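Table 4 source record.
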Amino acid sequence: MRQRLYILYIPILSLISTAVVLFFPFSAEDAFITYRYAQNLATLGSFVFNEGAPIMALTSPFHGLFTSLLFVLTGKTILANKIVSGVLFVGSAVLVCLRYRKQPTLQLITASLVLLPPCVALWTFGGLETPYLMFLVTSLTLLVARESETRRDLLYGTFLLAGLAFVTRFDSILFTAPLLIRMMCRTRRRYDIVLAIAVGAALPVAWMVISHSYYGDIFPTSFYAKSPSWSIPVIIGNGKYILFYLTVVGIIPAVAFTIVRLRKSRRMLELLQRHIMVMWWLYCGVAAELLYGLTMATTHMMFSFRFFVPYIPAVAILIADLVER
């Protein structure tokens, strides 16, 4: 049985290899804004697009700073970023598959959900922060999913990753907040909780202070140009877009398959309730991002579901855990 399942990885790997070849040359236009900021920081010492004009147009401070480091180390911005992004994408998939290494069926489900959507390969090499945030979100989800009592180092590490995710993309706080609450609920020592919050807040607070003093604002210019809209027509349009996304990447079919399997059990409602009670933090994180997506999923540079791509591995874990139960 295990060998038969592993044979199915052949078409999966073939498809993802084809996608990598097709999308590797692609670079989104906003990526070149990041590259210019990064190169100016490395060569001029100014984290700006134009020297002498301190305007913050980056949506991902961490990505800009890290890309500047890549430029210093390699002299190549675009190629170096694509290679690192590819490694992070593979790393996210490997982390998820390792969680189910003793359960080949669940491993195949998660691998399919993470590897097969074309939008994942597209935005892995698109030049933006998407694969960086995917790796951070996946690591956070797996850390919180550990069932044992939270150790001090894991607690601090989780908050540090959440802070890093925030300076990678600000909206990630909607996803990470329930995960951090879950970690605090499992920690008995108040001192550790306070210290963990300080560790997690260090990077975001430091960046906000620097951004406000250097640029005069804590938000990038794009926040004002394409801010979330609560207009009913916009929400309806984004809702249709999200449903299409959930179908195309395989999440709705996977959920439908799981429900059909559960219908054979007389304890269907009990199983669902128990799963929600155990994994409430992940349900809340995913739901918060989807609700936020209703206000901005189709704004500029969010084509091909870029906004949701970092959370696909986390959703795959949620579905696999439900199938397992």
